[in-house]
Amino acid sequence: MANLSGKLDSPIFGTLGRVADELNMETYVVGGFVRDCIMHRPCVDIDIVTIGSGIELAEKVHEALGDKSSAVSVFRNFGTAMLHFTE
């Protein structure tokens, strides 16, 4: 299995990890980001799954990012959220 730790050096992962720790939520990078890293493709979005409320996590990460995060789109029917941010 490929070591992907070098792909996780973006500041968003530090913020995400800190907020997840504060909320005591297990959080994992999944989906297309992982696939693209393994295949050495550009990664344009990040899929996160958490044991807990993904909506709460997205809202707290949004707050922590301040002006680097423009919006959180919440999809309550699915219990998911999408966070828009810039690095």
How is this fold's topology laid out?
Elements: H1 11-22, E1 26-30, H2 32-38, E2 47-51, H3 54-65, E3 69-75, E4 80-85
Antiparallel strand pairs: 1-2, 3-4
Helix pairs in contact: 1-3
Structure description:
With 87 residues, the protein is α+β, with helices and mostly antiparallel strands. It has a single domain (7-85), classed as Beta Polymerase, domain 2, CATH 3.30.460. The chain is built from three helices and four strands, in the order H-E-H-E-H-E-E. The strands form two sheets. A two-stranded antiparallel ribbon has the order 1-2. A hairpin with a 4-residue loop joins strand 3 (69-75) and strand 4 (80-85). It starts with 10 loop residues before the first helix and ends with a strand. 15% of the residues are buried.
Do you know the CATH topology? Beta Polymerase, domain 2
User: What is the strand arrangement across the widest sheet?
Assistant: 1-2
Mean of the pLDDT scores? 89
Number of strands: 4
- What are the low-pLDDT stretches, counting only 5+ consecutive residues below 50? none
Main beta-sheet strand count, sense and barrel state:
2 strands, antiparallel
What is the CA-CA span between the terminal residues? 28 Å
| Range of strand content | 25-35%
Secondary-structure arrangement, i.e. CATH architecture: 2-Layer Sandwich
Tally of alpha and pi helices:
3
H-E string: HEHEHEE
Categorize the overall geometry: globular
> Could you estimate the helical fraction of the residues in percent?
25-40%
The CATH class is Alpha Beta
Structural class, from secondary structure content?
alpha+beta
Gyration radius over CA: 13 Å
Count of structural domains: 1
CATH superfamily: Beta Polymerase, domain 2
